[in-house]
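Please check this chain.
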Amino acid sequence: MTNKSYRPKLKLLSHSRPLVANRPSSISRKATRALIRAHHVLEKRKAKALAAGDLATAEALSQQSSAQGGIQNYQQASLIGQSNSRGGDSSKLLMEWLMPVLPGLKDKATKGQCLRMLEVGALSTTNTCSRSCAFEMTRIDLNSQAKGIEQQDFMDREPPADQGDTFDIISLSLVLNYVPDPVGRGEMLRRTVTFLRKGHDLEFAKDLFPSLFLVLPAPCVTNSRYLDEAKLSEIMESLGYAMVKRKLTNKLVYYLWVLNHDQIPKVKNFKKVEVKPGKSRNNFAIVLQ
């Protein structure tokens, strides 16, 4: 009999990401997308079953995922999808956006005043932002297998005790879309505010920090029933963010949102409400309660 009262805590990133050193054999773009999509569908269905206390269905979905290659195949597909030959490291664009202020950031670093970056769901310790010499990097992942990446769920991270524990920039690159439910996505965005530094003396870069680098699959914004860019902007602005950079490609959408702690309005509630009807649209949503 299903235990209806059971409500296990849902992890935001169900599995670890792979070691960069483990180079997978090449598979086609179509196969890569199919593997990632199938894994995401199963994880969302499993999360929904767990939230409802349906342990039997959750276990059946876990077995189905394992039969399809499970996390090993998903990790391989994810790593190939983020290789240079497939579009590469998303932080490369971030550093391009920061290029005008990079000399100033490096100068501060040489004086022991390095800006701090928190990379959530870190895949590599050698990506562009890590090699920039502009940031003191903190990298976390739910089940890290790489030295230099701390094993931690962002939602379990202790809130900063003081400003010394905060960050100047947070990276959520292809992380928010992996959170299995809309409420969890909203809570993740809300939580980023707590971890960003209040007050800056960066006159040369005051319009770029503190900030959130957010990367999503483009269809999350361009082809969702429940979210478009206007609604995403409303959600972010309700948290105190303003969009300063944006790039849309066929597959991904990149944003840089700057936080103004002094102008954070009263947070509104955003429900899962249809904004773009259509049978071919997906169900990606963000809910703030």
About this structure: The beta strands are 115-120, 135-141, 150-151, 169-173, 211-217, 241-248, 252-259. Residues 51 and 252 are 29 Å apart (CA to CA). Confidence is low (pLDDT under 50) at residues 1-25, 83-87.
